[in-house]
Design goal:
This is Methylenetetrahydrofolate reductase. This protein is an alpha/beta fold. About 40% of the residues lie in helices and about 15% in strands. The mean pLDDT is about 95. Bound molecules: 1,4-dihydronicotinamide adenine dinucleotide (NAI) and 5,10-methenyl-6,7,8-trihydrofolic acid. 5,10-methenyl-6,7,8-trihydrofolic acid binds near residues 27, 109, 178 and 222.
């Protein structure tokens, strides 16, 4: 099961960015191309499912990811998919044109579904993924909870999705919402493992970005950004014009991760700044034993 998620899962990570994954939108094709020489080979790159982007643009993004030597992981946002046909056509095109083997399913923000799928389980239970040869399915993890569910309901849904994916012969992967509060994320992963959920986990980390951009995305995505949490992250609300990287967050994770947290890697949300995010990752890597240098023989 492990190599299906990333070749590096089989061994202990050399540093916190070892085996990282990235996210892009269909608009980021040119910046992915520009950043590609600096991105580790076979890095998983998720392609978001945003309103205002059509299937052709998303397929083109996935094709570019594959052509550049990375592993495309298209998102399927259940509530934004308008018909069974739209779902099946996008999946088939992603497989045929980009050799997609991994997909990520998420409910999506619309309060009412725009089509036949009200949650990510409905996509998993459609049977379409395994029928198209998909080997791994990513699902969302919510260290800060979920506005529509109690914590117990949230765990039950997560357990149910992992079980359904495995029952269908695929490997589950949990990718968490980005966060600014590393301690909260560590507590959540410990609770997840204590419940017996042993699926690989990718912890969502914001890429370096302007503070206004970070706050805009936090508000849009329901991510906690209190003054206290931002201060731990290294942002002072008196300096809205500046920018901030995930240095302190990643240090907190690195210092706090224990065997009890199980297999964990990072997933970066670049918020439009892929090149800046990759530069940050490589700086961090160079300062912490340089796994990328070893992989490329530099
Ligand atoms: N804005 C916020 O504060 C946050 C929002 N979310 C939302 O929760 C969703 C969670 O996705 P998954 O973990 O894949 O959940 P899921 O697909 O496994 O669904 C779990 C349950 O939540 C319900 N649900 C999901 N999204 C909903 C929505 N937008 N409105 C009303 N009910 C909803 C589903 O019908 C289902 O019963 C995300 O797509 C995101 O929209 C999650 C965390 C923070
Ligand atoms: N609840 C929730 N809803 C989401 O839509 C969502 C999350 N969580 N978590 C993180 C991901 C990442 N998402 C996104 C959304 C937009 C861009 C993006 O680049 N959008 C612009 C730029 C706009 C801006 O800077 O505000 C674009 O051109 O589309 C990137 C990632 C959406 N995501």
């Amino acid at each position: 099961m492990i190599p299906i998620i990333h070749p590096n899962w089989a061994r202990a990570p050399i540093n916190m960015v070892d085996g990282y994954s990235l996210e892009m939108t269909a608009k980021d094709i040119d910046s992915l191309r520009a950043a590609a020489p600096a991105i580790a080979p076979v890095t998983p790159v998720a392609v978001t499912f945003l309103p205002g982007e059509d299937a052709a643009a998303r397929v083109a993004a996935a094709r570019t990811v594959r052509a550049l030597g990375f592993e495309p992981m298209p998102h399927f946002s259940a509530r934004r998919i308008r018909s069974e046909r739209e779902f099946r056509d996008y999946l088939a095109a992603a497989v045929a044109e980009a050799g997609v083997q991994r997909c990520f399913v998420i409910a999506g923000d619309p309060a009412e579904p725009e089509g036949p799928y009200s949650d990510s389980s409905a996509l998993i239970e459609s049977g379409a993924f395994e029928a198209n040869g998909i080997t791994a399915i990513g699902i969302g993890g919510h260290p800060e909870g979920h506005p529509n569910m109690t914590p117990d309901q949230g765990w039950a849904v997560l357990e149910g999705k992992c079980a359904a994916i495995e029952r269908r012969g695929m490997a589950p992967l949990i990718v968490t919402q980005f966060a600014f509060d590393g301690e909260r994320v560590l507590d959540w992963v410990a609770a997840l493992r204590a419940r017996g959920i042993d699926a690989p986990v990718r912890l969502g980390v914001p890429g370096p970005a302007g503070i206004r951009t970070l706050l805009r995305f936090a508000a849009r995505c329901g991510v906690g950004a209190s003054a206290a949490v931002l201060s731990k992250y290294g942002i002072s609300l008196g300096a809205l014009l500046g920018s901030a990287g995930p240095d302190r967050l990643v240090d907190t994770l690195a210092a706090g991760l224990r065997a009890e947290h199980g297999a964990v890697r990072l997933h970066f949300y670049p918020f439009g700044g892929i090149e800046k995010t990759v530069a940050w990752i490589n700086d961090y890597d160079n300062a912490h034993g340089s796994v990328m240098g070893r992989m490329t023989g530099e």
